[in-house]
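Task: fold both queries, return tokens.
Query 1:
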Amino acid sequence: MQPTDTKTRVLYLSYDGMTDPLGQSQVIPYLQGLSKAGYSFTLISFEKEGRFEKNRDTIAALLKESNIDWVPLPYTKKPPVLSTIWDLRQMKKTAISLHLKKGFKIIHCRSYISAMVGMDMQKQFGVKFIFDMRGFYADERVEGGIWKLSNPVFKQVYNFFKRKEQQFFSTANYTISLTKKGRDIIHTWKNIKNQPIPIQVIPCCADLDLFSEKSIDAGLLQQLRKQFNLTGNQFVLNYLGSVGTWYMLDEMLDFFKCLLTIRPDAKFLFITGEPASDILTKAKIKGIPEASFIITPAPHKQVPTYLALSQCSIFFIKPVFSKSASSPTKQGEIMGMGMPHICNAGVGDVDDIIDEKSGVLLKTLNTAEYEKAIQKMLSTTFDKDYIRFRSQQIYSLSTGVENYRKVYKAVLGV
């Protein structure tokens, strides 16, 4: 049955869940914007049981408001590899069934698992296939220690995905890269057909209406200051988000230990849903007192107020090959608040984004460089309006939506 409405029908495939924070910040806002631009979405996602039960109704209502047809499927985690194969089969079966009913013009695939279905449907049905890569997936799994190549099973899986990667880039009607650096690397690969392939760079955009000083709740801010025993002149350094796999917690703790030698009353605020013990165990080994830490989760809409407890943010990410294609979501959110930040070089386009008026870029991580960065942070009055302006230049959600719309129009030839 062919659709009777005039809107272009798009199937969006995500192996990430919409009840996950990532789905809420990096999928739904784009689809809402594109829906307003005249596209009709069906969204297949894979949901983790606990989060799905907790957030299902909220997300369902949010998507319904934008007329997005949501088809949530259960995510299976164990056993490794086999569980993913099972999920992939469910994704493909569901996608084909929906296509036969709705007649999609575009299949938009978030990352490599989804792209396997998209490439097959492009071949079988002639649907336009957009490969939204999100990063060098197979290399991320190896460099993050998730797939150990010493294990023959994981080595075989890695080689399989590297072959698929070449096919995705060669056959996709359009590719989305989070970074210019990633795009430039892909364009050097001679094993990809039809080079230079069409690639649109769209970083992890931020909701800059939410991540703004205007979103700070003055009453809640006062309450949190009292709850965490913060005085007006204390220097508070923050870290936003998860601390696993890619984030260099040891080095960030070393940085904070240096800060304590200059400002003994400083606090390190972790805004994270992860267990405090993951941070405090390492801090204890380094001789950093537990009293110097504030570790707390925050509802998404209250994150700007929690960030306002601090003067500066920090994130160190492993500068490995796979991270050349990564865009830290937290950077756009921090800059949206007009907040300076400290980060390390060698990750995605970070080197080009941060400048001396918006923070400090560390090319090496050692005590001497930490001390220089701290002195700069303590002695500089950063222009919040400038930092906010930079975030709007780079991470604006409306710009991201418009760039996706251009890709859709290009693949449809309109």
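Query 1 returned. Query 2:
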Amino acid sequence: MKAAFLTAIFAVSVSFFNSADAASWMHYDQDNSPLPSNYVSTILSDDEGTWVGTDNGLAFFDGSDWFIYDSETSELPDNNIRDIHKDNTGKIWVATDKGLLEISTDGWQTHSTSNSNIPSDYIRSVASDSEGNIWIGTWGNGIAAKNGNNWTVYNTDNSDLPSDGVFTVEIDELGVIWVGTFNGGVSKFNGLGWTTYNTSNSELPHNHVRSINFDQNHIAWFGTEDGVVRKTPGGHWDVYNAENIGYSFHTIYGGVIESAGKLYFATDGGILKFNGSDFSMVTSQNSSLPSNNVRSLALDLNGNLWVGSGNDGLSIYNPQGTLGVKEPLKTAESLTAYPNPTSNELTFLLPNKSSGNSEITVVNGTGQTVLTKQISNGGLSQHILDVSSLSTGTYFISVYSSTGISQGRFVKL
């Protein structure tokens, strides 16, 4: 099995912007960060940091450091990332064009047609229900649910799913499965039967449904290629598009819920905001948004909106003017470690003598911390670390001291 390789890059330069409405912005792209592509297809933010999916690999940003994964240097099955989801057990699921990646404390595992009964390797969406089942939407083979090692498939041949091309799968608070499809509208499955809404039997403005969101008022929001529509629990429909709200956009690529009745939508005309009663647009013309081609959104725990562009990288936006992203760490210095490769002990030299204690951390190729140690500097720059208990593979060592951070890489034989 190919060993996963992790790239950590410290203290990248950041562009800060301020617009006339006092909102605060940060911006990352391939010029000022290790972001693997300026096309950001999906974003997941949790209490550990932010996962960023691109068309050229996967990135994780903890507020200070970047960790980059691709199919050549890690277990990532494909560089084209379609969706990222965190289930209620803390596992991360990554949808790609060559299978579904599961990231857990046990490591990385890919579920594909070569090693499981998953119906397709072209995974467009992933979600999980309250019972721990993993649901996927595929491009050409419908949807499927993973329960343990078993996959249950629903497609146009064995169910009333209207299309096997699936943009998104979402699950509401009652456990109902909702499926946004290519040219089939949106369908819901309650475990017993299917109900489909399309342009023929509802006010849905387009049969391409790319996103589904449920707000705290139990209202379903559907993003289509001709605007966004909301459906109340009582069956009332409201359509919002360029024709009736006066803003220049057509396709809705995704949405996030800020609070009850308040949402943001990623569109081909910028960020569409709904405050509960009115719409507004954040664009490159009226803000520091670098591009109106917005493909993905996520909200972090600090209330920052992460904005993925189709051509200009990743932006972080806070309309209140206060970004809560952690301050970058001090610039890392290189760490000299030998022998490298090593079997039992690793000797390393700190480039700067520092007072007090230092902390050593060793991280494996899947991003797990496998060894920590406190050392007393005592005016010494040379230290020895016992690594005999580690498995064979590539590791990253970081030393945090009063003078900053030193980092290196070593191979354990």
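Both queries returned. Flag for query 2: The two ends are 16 Å apart (CA to CA).
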